[in-house]
Amino acid sequence: MREVAGSQLPPHVLGDPRMVEACRARDFGTIFTLVRRAGIYPSRIARLCEMTPSRVSEVIAGKRTLTQIGVIERVADGLGIPGSMLGLAARAWESSDGPVVQDLAPAEETPRPALPRQVAVPADDGDDEALELQRELMAATSAGSMVAALYSTQVDTMRKLDRQLGAERLLPQLQEQIHQMENLLRYGTAAGAREALAAVLTEASTLAGWQALDLGRYKTAWSLHETAKSAAREAGSPALLAHATAQQAYVLLDLGKPDEAIAQVRFAREQASRGVPPLMESWLFAAEAEAHAAAQHDAECRLGLERAEAVRPTDPSDPTLPFLFLAGSHLDRWRGNCMATLGADEALEDLTASLSSMEMSGFNRAEAGVRCDLAVVLARRGEFAEAQKQAVRAQDLAALTSSVRQRRRIAQVLSSTAV
Question: What angle do CA 270, 271, 274 make, to 5 degrees?
């Protein structure tokens, strides 16, 4: 391959998880699509890979596949894709001391000479396994800290969308990302890159576990939290492990097992043993208080909420814990939920205080929960008309987020407040 000054596939394109996976699967439709998005048009792809433009277009459209080894080699050489990413031997141009820079801009030069082709030799099963392992190792090696950062951005976007749109449309996408990260982590060998990717996998799995729980998929929710806990141990993060372990207890709560949930949250908190940021410690106390409320342990619940307030930092935001929200309105909401579960009238004040800010923040599912709790408290006070109003509004929000958990609760409130 002729080495000239010019542009080449940007590193972020080769490092894109979609590109890594597409190369591993030899999915040339996706490969060409990603290359096109990088600014290299199909006509130029065809010239570089010694193919016709119509054939490239058919591959992109999914009407044709590329399976011949000679064609695959031409794609690797033409686009500058390392051979191991496509399950090939290292290409001739990879042996140079520095990166090969290909000219991807139109030019008037004469056609470049074809590279000598590898001679195909029969391979036994051991060779096939070795080749497959090499592909997986190459994909994982190329997925360094930059790829972990890209996944982290995607998970944060999912988290923000989840607050407003709910889990139904997002969970399948998040589970696919989790599968990709698990595969990269399984074959990754660089210690620093493994830890960074494991941390992102923990956050993704914990979020997906909560989404599955919200959809009433209890076994899936439990399994995803187990994935999160394993990844947190790989990441060496006590805070992530404590969060995943304690949040898993909500599956037990929904299954009507409050005592087991209390034990699990307490275990998570004691295992962390103040080795976590104050914001996480505050969250753990509040989660344990909620489990006590479900078990109707009034004194223990109130003590947990007091401890959560006492250790909560002045600035209740921590960039290392983007999944925790304990600003004033959120802790008020949490306290109000606990008091409503205990049947305490003081819940009305906390819930009302949190509602105005909740409406403005875009936490649609959380707002549905607040309004449902308000309906419970109002119905207990005999204010059935207002309770119905709050429950109907909660029902609308729960429908928006497809929250099975909320819809079940709201249906019970509506039936009990019907006049």
Answer: 70
C-beta of residue 185 within 8 angstroms of C-beta of residue 234: yes
Among candidate residues 284, 209, 285, the one with its CA nearest the CA of residue 252: 209
Q: Which two tokens stand for residue 56?
A: 């490239």
Residues 391 and 293: their CA atoms lie apart, in Å, by 21
Cα(126)–Cα(132) distance, rounded to whole angstroms? 10
Cβ atoms < 10 Å from Cβ of 82: 17
CB 333 within 8 A of CB 349: no
- How many Å apart are CA 44 and CA 52, to the nearest integer? 10
Q: What angle, rounded to 10 degrees, do the helices at 404-417 and 191-214 form?
A: 20
Distance, in Å, from the CA atom of 139 to the CA atom of 21, rounded to the nearest integer, reads 7
Can you tell me the distance from the alpha carbon of 124 to that of 350, in angstroms, rounded to the nearest whole number? 69
DSSP 95: G
Torsion of CA 261, 264, 267, 269, to 10 degrees: -70
Distance CA(385)–CA(233), nearest Å, equals 50
User: Which amino acid is located at 290 in the chain?
Assistant: E
Select from 383, 391, 386 the least CA-distant residue to 411. 391
Q: Tell me the residue type at 92.
A: A
- What's residue 301's pLDDT? 96
Alpha carbons 380 and 344: distance in angstroms, whole number = 10
SS3 (DSSP) at 346:
coil
In this model, does residue 120 exceed pLDDT 70? no
How is residue 167 written in tokens? 């889990």
Beta carbons of 169 and 115 less than 8 angstroms apart: no
Kindly report, residue by residue over 197-213, the tens digit of the pLDDT. 899 999 999 999 999 99
3-state helix, strand, coil in the chain (%, to 5): 70, 0, 30
Give the single-character DSSP code of 146.
H
Report long-range pairs for 231-236 (Cβ below 8 Å, ≥24 apart).
Answer: 231/185, 231/198, 231/199, 231/201, 231/202, 231/205, 232/198, 232/199, 232/202, 234/185, 234/194, 234/195, 234/198, 235/195, 235/196, 235/198, 235/199, 235/201, 235/202, 236/195
What is the overall mean pLDDT for the chain? 82
Using one digit for the tens of pLDDT, what is the confidence trace for 321-365?
A: 888 877 767 788 888 889 989 988 888 888 888 777 655 466 777
